[in-house]
């Protein structure tokens, strides 16, 4: 395609080479701007180019399209520059918040790239910015070089000096690195997550020498691979600039323009719109601001430093007009009438053929391989295929939004938009963070995440309240300063239990962290607080056995339903057809791993001869609908009809549009039944279902009325079943026995429950977010007009839309007036459920198509409405909503790849119910993606669990806590399926030559300094009860039991793993293993994350190994006393060759080896 650049038609573009020139290109069809810029870059190869766009959306589109065009237009001997993306800060000028790490990452990437392209051999840079980013100031070249460093293996630097330097660069010290801009130092290991790196980097030092460099996964914390060099960029930009200006008022900053050298070309797309948006934005900038240039300064600098090219769509006199293809009636947004669409496409293909015969260069550009294949089939079908000797179009793959025609160059570009009528989905730009790789572990309920005041479950003693971590001394010895160090005692979880007498102080249980696996966070159902268990009472044992009986009944019921369904005859679908593969290939996004797994599972169910009944759970916007669409397509391919049942009219409309758009290339008829349809439309749809001319119908509960008959219904898709009434649910229950049913829900199902139900209920969960989704920034405010105006203005500045939720129809118009006064330039529309259906549909269509900036509405937007461009939501009186409701509402924004904002407005000075406060703080806390079920947990509502298990099980979940309930359920399901339940054999270990807690070996040294190896006196703590009387007199004194043991330490030392939570997690893992493979994985993880394994940790791992070995031999206890060894099995001591075994070796490490040999010999 490079030959095109030599066409005489593009001669006017050469004017851009003249210093200080102004080149206006008018009458340029929308969608062709990137092509023009790519041609300019090829004609004027020595000039850097800066493209300035009016909005973020256009900036992203131009950036994506430039990559395609440069690939095809670049001359073979010329190395093209990869277009750089330079975003604006996603904060308002006067906000104290700092921009998102991914925004800073892309800005710094571009600046660093520009420093490299100053070298002669480098290709000239091409940068795409938007008007607001163009105004913002940044680091000077010298400052950037000073703050950017490369490190290599063998380099010498003191780790503490490096940490100090990193902190000066804006990096934040944390216990564990999970986000960009964080660092963590643990002994000789330093973790850093540079802003410009896709993965965090782990430095391992030997003294002051960098001995190893590797990248690691921020979720699992485990290394991914070794690297030889690490480039560390600054850990921030705006924050650093602000700090430097406080220290030195003369600190220099610079503009993006000044980073471009050598006669740059400035390309402004729709310059008047850029100027208008820039001036609106600058009105919000405080007078004292030093981080923005004025519009006049910026434009003047562009004219002085280089050439300015202006591109406009307006049809003024133009030297290079570029036409849209709309005049040739390509396929528009389809009406659902396949005959009209077919005729229109045929006419358009005839026009393509005429262009080819008229010696035009025709390029067909599709975004996927399967779309290109589909074009070839249609082209051949209409008689224009390659078997004809006539000229053929050039076919290729790329991401171009619209086609266009350049008459003077005899060039026609046709895209999949014109061929298939798909104008909506712009392919998302890939961010550099591996968001899509967020592993499942991030989404599990963390039962170890304890906060003071949380209810906890102790496996043996029942429900208590966690009151914090306590260091209990092993003796009443204090340092001269009067303070204890952590190393002088046992680190214990302190838990408070119930009392029979209210007057009595509650007894406390101190659990050493090495036994933390016995304690987990309590999660129940509903808002009731659980009663605390009384130590020593039988109530806890009874609650456990009642729950066991109940889960056994539930498991039996679930398996019975499963068995009866499997005995019913169903339709077994054949394997995927070529059309199915083609249809799936046309999906404009990249499927997430979970999405793939769910699609595969649903299709496998359909290929079985029994009816399918699968539940697909996934957070809002994680791609459940695509699973349903593919299952529906599969059903229609075999002549079956599909009904999709949704809870709201608005959602029905949206799903209908999605189905229409996805099915557009195929002869499939899609209908809609809802109150948005006229009587005539509804009658046509109902008739079509009865005669079989309608393949798919989307509708509300109208669909399950008796009056609606299907000719051959094969698949029912139910969205959010829990929102239908009891009668509807009964109707659905009957359906389930005869047809395939796929249920979708965004009320998340906790993973623990999912695992427990494996084998009893077919369930898929989609937990990985689509790539490039950022967490939602949540702010709680009182009704403050300035904050609300700013929030709306920020969204409008970047060309986005705003949801404003006001859930009272009576006062919604008054609120509309208030908002109009706040932002007079914004286009506001109002929508609520009491409107006439046609009006509401019109309102929603206006907003979805971007013809309005603000939608002020009631909760009609709660379920499933997808408007990628709406990324700010303001919820009035957020205290009136339940937590899951708030979460679902907030999930309406952040569906795309921009930072999304949610503002929760609470009433002024209201003594808010503590419940509402808690709900809202939980929402802020869990703004992480996919935290839907952490939310549900935090509100203790587990509605997902209730929906699946039924109300009668809730009482048992409350009695024993969710984690234990799920364990019992899993065992019951396994047992009833006739499979072997894997029970842990608890092995108690009492080894008198090891100190299993800090402080024990020191005590031993103190008692008997002369004895070097064995027979030393020390005290071993046990998990013990301290009665309230004792705790009065000796608040921190343990009951101690004398033993005669040695002093070799076998624990996780404070200085090796300083963070308590991390130590507890590792102790918990070590206590819960079944086999050596797990132990090996943890050993590798410890070595990787914390550095070379010291002796105490090595011994602890060897003790864990002994426990696993003992469990495989059914040994329940290992005890040593001086040189005696006692193994217990079934309550009896074991002999070897008729004798009790004794030690032959003298050192602790060799004795551990002896124990291993003896256990293996059993």
- How would you write the strand order of the largest sheet? 27-28-26-29-30-25-31
Apparent shape: globular
Count of alpha/pi helices? 35
Assembly state (oligomeric): single chain
What topology does this entry show?
Layout: E1 22-25, H1 33-43, E2 49-53, H2 56-73, E3 84-86, H3 101-116, E4 126-130, H4 131-135, H5 141-147, E5 149-152, H6 159-168, E6 172-173, E7 182-186, E8 189-192, E9 201-206, E10 209-216, E11 223-226, E12 229-232, H7 238-247, E13 265-269, H8 271-282, H9 295-305, E14 307-311, E15 323-324, H10 338-357, E16 361-366, H11 369-381, E17 394-397, E18 404-406, E19 411-415, H12 416-420, E20 455-458, E21 462-473, E22 489-496, E23 508-512, E24 519-521, H13 539-567, H14 578-585, H15 593-606, E25 613-618, H16 624-637, E26 641-645, H17 649-663, E27 670-673, H18 679-691, E28 696-699, E29 713-719, H19 726-736, E30 740-745, H20 751-756, E31 762-766, E32 776-782, H21 785-797, E33 801-805, H22 812-822, E34 828-831, H23 837-848, E35 854-857, E36 870-875, H24 883-890, E37 900-906, H25 914-925, H26 932-938, H27 943-949, H28 954-960, H29 962-976, E38 988-991, E39 994-995, H30 1000-1007, E40 1016-1020, E41 1024-1026, H31 1028-1033, E42 1041-1045, E43 1048-1049, H32 1060-1071, H33 1076-1090, H34 1095-1112, E44 1117-1121, E45 1124-1129, E46 1132-1133, ...
Parallel strand pairs: 1-14, 2-4, 2-13, 3-4, 6-7, 13-14, 16-17, 16-19, 25-30, 25-31, 26-28, 26-29, 27-28, 29-30, 32-37, 33-35, 33-36, 34-35, 36-37, 38-44, 39-43
Antiparallel strand pairs: 5-12, 7-8, 8-9, 9-10, 10-11, 15-18, 18-19, 20-21, 20-24, 21-22, 22-23, 23-41, 40-42, 44-45, 45-46
Helix pairs in contact: 1-2, 11-14, 13-28, 13-29, 14-16, 15-16, 28-29, 34-35
